[in-house]
Every structure is written in C-alpha cells, then in structure tokens.
Write the structure tokens for this entry.
Amino acid sequence: MKAGRSPGLWLTLAAVLAAGLAPAIAESDTMREGMSTLLIFVTLATSLNILLGYTGYVNFGHIVFFGLGGYCGFYLLSRHGWPLPAAALAGGISSVLLAGMLGACILRLRGAYFALATIGINEAARAFVSTFPPFGGATGLSINFDVYRRYGGASRALWTVYASLLAAALAAIAMSHLVRRSRFGLGLMAIREDEDAAQVMGVRAPRLKTIAYMLSAFFPGVVGVLYFFKNGNVEPGDAFRLNMSIETMVMVMLGGQGTLMGPVAGAAAYERLRGYLITSPLFKNLHLAVAGLSLLLIVLFIPAGAVGWLRRRFPPLRRFLE
Amino acid sequence: MSPEFISSLCDGILMGCVYGVAAMGLTLIWGVMRVVNLGHGAIMALGMFALSLLVAHLGLNPYLALAGVALLGFVCGVGMYWTAVHRLIDAPYLSTLLSTFAVNMMLIGMGTAVFTTTPRNIDFAMRTVRIGALAFPGTRLAAAAIAVLVTAGLHLFLHRSRTGAAIRAVASNRAAAELMGIPSARMLSLSFGIGAMLAAVAGGLIATIFPFTILSGESYQMRSFVVCVLGGLGNPLGALAGGIVLGLLEGGIPFFMPVSWVPVIEFAIFVLVLMVRPTGLFGGER
C-alpha cells in the first residue's frame, strides 16, 4: 500500500504515541490531565483540517460536533446506561449524521456564505440544546458517581478515558493521512484551488464537500463524549464555546493548513502558549487577545503556517514534513 | 390581536431600525470589498462602552456623545483596514475572515481585561410617549429616528456626493475605477471606516436602551448577518428593511413559542434565504 509508506505519517504517529504514553509511564495524574487537553486539541485540529485545510472551507461551527456528539453520547451513557465505548461511537455517529443533514443544506452555499452559516449553526445548536428537555435544558446532564464503578473506580475510569483519547487522536491522524493521499482528497484540494474549474473537470463538489464535512465531524463527537464523561457533567455553555472553534482554527493555521503534521504541531504549540498565558500574571486576562494577535500575524505574514513555511524554505525536508 | 401583541410588534420595528444600522455597516463593507467583517460585533461593543464612558465622565447628553462615538468608530475602522485587511484584499476570502476575526479576538480580549464582563447600563431615561393604548419608551423612538436619519444620510452620501460615487465605482469594478483615477485603496479604507462607524453608532444606540457587556456585540453581530442576508448583501437600504423584518420577528415570535427559540428560527430563516434567494428578500436579480 502506497499510503502506508510515508515517513511523515509514521513520524507524526510515533511522536503523538510517545507523548501520549509518557504520563502512563510516569503514572502522573497532572501530566495526564495536561496531555488529555492536548490530545483533544490534536483531534479537533486534525479533523478540522480536512475541511479548512484540504477543502478550503472555513467552519466556525466545528465545536458543534464536539458539543452535540458529546451530548448524544452522554445522554445514552447517563440515562440509558450504555457502556463508554458504545456511547463514544454513538456520539461520533450522531455528529456524522448531523453533519450529513446540515451539509446537504448549507454546503450548497459557497465561500463566505458557508462560513456565515456555520456561525449561525453554533448559536442555533446552543439554543436548541438549552431548550430541549431530554438534554436537561440550561443545567445540562450529569452522571451518577456509581457509573465509574463499572470501570473499576474513578481513577481507573480516568485512565481508560485517557487511553481512548490517545486512540482517537491517532485514528484521526491516520484518517487525515488517508484522505490526503486518496483520489477523494485530490478532489477536495481541487475544490480548494478553484471550485468552478474542479466542477468542470468532473469533481462532484457538493457531494465531496458533504463527505468531507461528515468525516471532519466524527472524531469531535467521539472526543466530546470522552471529555464530558471525564468531567462527569455536560452543559450548553461548556459544550458550544465559539471560542473553542476559533482556537482550533488558530492551531490549524499556526501549524500549517492542509498539511498532515501542521495541525498536530499547531495544537501542541498552542497548548503550550495557552498554558503559559493563562498562568502568567501579566497575560492571564489577555490570552484571547494574544491568541488573536498571533492569528493575525500568521494570516498576514506566514499564511502557510509553520510546516508549510518549512516545506517551502527547505525543499529536502519535504520528504518528512507532510 | 391583543394590544400587547401590537405593542410588542411596534417595539420590534423600532429595534429593527437600529439592527438595520448595524447591518448596514457590514453590508457596505461586503458590497465594496467582498470582505465579511467579523470584528463588527467588537466595534459595536466598543461603541457601547465609548458612549457610556462619555456620558458617565463628561456628563454629555447621550445623543450628543454619539457624534464622538461615530468618530471613534470611523478611526477604528480605518485603522483596522490598514492593519488587517489591506494586505489581504486580493487573497482568498478565508484570509480576511480569519484576520478580521483575529482583530475581534484582540478587541474583545482587551475589552474583557479592562472592563470585565459585568453588565453595565447608561443612566438615562426619556419620557414615554403614549399613542392610544400603545406606549413607546422615548429612548427607543429616538434611537429609531436616528437610525432612519443615518440611513438617509448614507444613501445621500453614496448617491449624491462625488466621494460616494467613487466608492460605488470601486465597488462595481476596482480595476476600472483605478484606471479612471480613483485612489481605490483610499476609497476602500474610507468605506471600511464608514462601516465601522455605523457599527459603533448602532452600538451606542443599543446602549441607551439595553444593559450591555463587552460580549454583547457578538449577539448583535449575529443579528446583523441575518439582517444583511434578509436585505440582500451589499444593499444598504435593504439592510434597514431587513432590520425591520427581524425586529418584527423578534417582537412576534415570543407570543407563539418560548423566547429561547428566537435565535433558532432566525438562523433557520437566514440559511433558507441564503439558499433560496441569495440576493435577499428585496434584492433585484443579479
């Protein structure tokens, strides 16, 4: 298989795996919490990249899949006693179905119109969830502490969640790579470069865009369920943070949109930066402003992101940096 | 129809005029340079705060202070154009969406640090005007009147003045306008300034009516998008009409279903209009 012989993919997977195993080896809970956040970022950024990087469509509502998938899975888990793996899969699948339905409507819009519609979707989803009675309205849902007993106590349950997060991140990266190397991915990139020309050449733009949108929805849904299971509760404000969609976009742009490694590197860099800004007394209240400034500087001066810039600057590295 | 329903619809129309002004700023910028200004809400929030500071510290009448707010908005807009938009004017739309959003994050982030997110309001009240069974708060009437005046002013500026004609020329064909000796970059920055000015004025007007926080701009920005699309993107007069339609919806919907459904319906309409009639309810064929 040609797609398997790619140093870039294996390098990325190895790096994520090594970083992900570190907390398990050190058996440190603080390290695990930090890495969980990072793995969630990696998964969100990598899946957003399929739409933002490969297809060139701005999606301000990426976090909707995280929130709504998380809600669906959490609902099954807490109210119907589904086991975690099944609930996580159900969360991912419900996100995909939602994306399929939304995509059929809003992906007929092009360019900036699509971006506007996705902002609306985030707001509408939050409003919908806070008024939908089975999802607990504005207070959300929470799980009984007993549920953790099924997974061998709270501490064991948290390690299980962590392992699942790691697996989800690795799977998202592998999926991103497969899309990139496939005929389907080439179609997406053709749409990014020139949608009209692509359609003339026989690319079925609406269908491809919808599939890309659905693919990008799956892992956020899975990760959403894991995240809310870890927290023990879910509420609308926490599930649909527009900021989080934007932060994910910053990660993708920072690392390099349309590359495989970019979103991973961007997520790691952003997590570090955010951790520093939030804890430093000077920037504590300004972390949003600093994130905005870095986004502006990237867009203005290095629109290809770190990986894209390195690839252009040092052609020999192209074999490894994808 | 009950009097409450009618008075709620009237309130909706008055608020709708203000939404119209906010949307006019967005739609002007879109019409002239095909840029969606995602910093619009942040500038509205700045307008709110500027007005409240001017009123609280200088003791100005809010409607007088509005002139200062307008000037501030204009300066912000021109500054924003040269820093965040000018370099990207010919880049794919993705870049300007991200760069204006970055400005939004910076403004909101700094605003949150300075003003925190506790709600504020402007201590100012006007006599309530009664017509039959209907009562109109004076501040809303004044806000709607100013909104209509601003709309008329913008229309006259665009269609009667030489600069306005130059802006319209740049909007319809930048390259040709440049060949006719119109400094297109200056016109673009001017229209961005006017767009931001309209946002700041709308923010100021809203601040005289409702309490606000630094984050309130966001929800009004959402409404502005809906209004722009209803009125047809790039059509300033349509924006006022779209604003009134949205105001009527906001006034009428709560009588039929819970208030929290209003945004869901607004965005359903938004997406529907974009798909079925992308030139807006009042727009002509393009």
Summary: The radius of gyration of chain A is 19 Å. The first strand of chain A starts at residue 141 and ends at 142.
